[in-house]
């Protein structure tokens, strides 16, 4: 069942076409991630859906509700992670949550939220004394206060260290267990891959592709990257490269010093042929690896551009 559907969203700021044409639908209980480089239009898309920015064109439906007719009801249904600046720095997490709770008719108990965002031990510390990761967790808690069905998190892990990011991931996975729908934006491919049921890759205001992380990666796994590092140095790698270039299973080759990288649709066959060659020449291979494709590869394959964090 779709809880959100957007059709042909468009938004310009003066001459900048921030969102050119975005359409997608999100199912109940999904973690749906919008990923894209800086300026791709992620925040603008999210803010239109959240009712904070008016689209120039397009439709937004929450089931059979829309902003024009059912604004109040939609606000009860969604939770938006506030900007860090919206929190009260001199108050504690507990006081911030209690205060935000007064904005709503029904609220999830503060203790439950503190537990969920793992801030129970810090509930009496002033917000200004919290770390960046703790503040972000509180922001997610504030989005949860009205116990919404759909939660919007705009780059909740940007600027956090790996451990703090993982704490946020745990909360997102916990929200999923609670049956919530989460719509997330991120710069981090690894994050999108780990958390999402589906990923929507955007670039320059348009959707590049939408699918499950595994299906996106699967589309590319026809080709796998194989790496061989030669103990005998550059000359061995160069000869192996010339040999591999003649193999029909090999699509592309790169060489960096004594490391040969090649892309093949049949890694086993290619490696077998290469090992026959190295044995014949008496070259020693120090390391062999077959790399799994990542969402980053998907982005590069679809856009022809390098991924920039
Ligand atoms: P980031 O990852 O950097 O947050 P993003 O994918 O969220 O980027 P947006 O913030 O939606 O991208 O911005 C898309 C484009 O629209 C950018 O070129 C941005 O500079 C521009 N833009 C966004 N908001 C405004 C605004 N209020 N006024 C003018 N231009 C804007």
From TrEMBL:
Query: Among its keywords, does the record have Transport?
Result: yes
Concerning InterPro entries, the annotation shows: AAA+_ATPase, ABC_transporter-like_ATP-bd, ABC_transporter-like_CS, ABC_transporter_ATP-binding, P-loop_NTPase
ABC transporter domain mapped to chain residues:
4-229
Q: Which domain of life is it from?
A: Bacteria
In alphabetical order, the GO MF annotations are:
ATP binding
Which keywords has UniProt assigned to this entry? Answer: ATP-binding, Nucleotide-binding, Transport
- Pfam family of this protein, just one? ABC_tran
Record carries keyword Acyltransferase: no
Which PROSITE patterns does the protein's record reference?
Answer: ABC_TRANSPORTER_1, ABC_TRANSPORTER_2
| UniProt feature coiled coil, ranges | none
Q: Which family does it belong to?
A: Belongs to the ABC transporter superfamily.
Protein name as catalogued: ABC transporter ATP-binding protein
Q: Which organism is it from?
A: Neobacillus driksii
Q: What is the lineage of its organism?
A: Bacteria, Bacillati, Bacillota, Bacilli, Bacillales
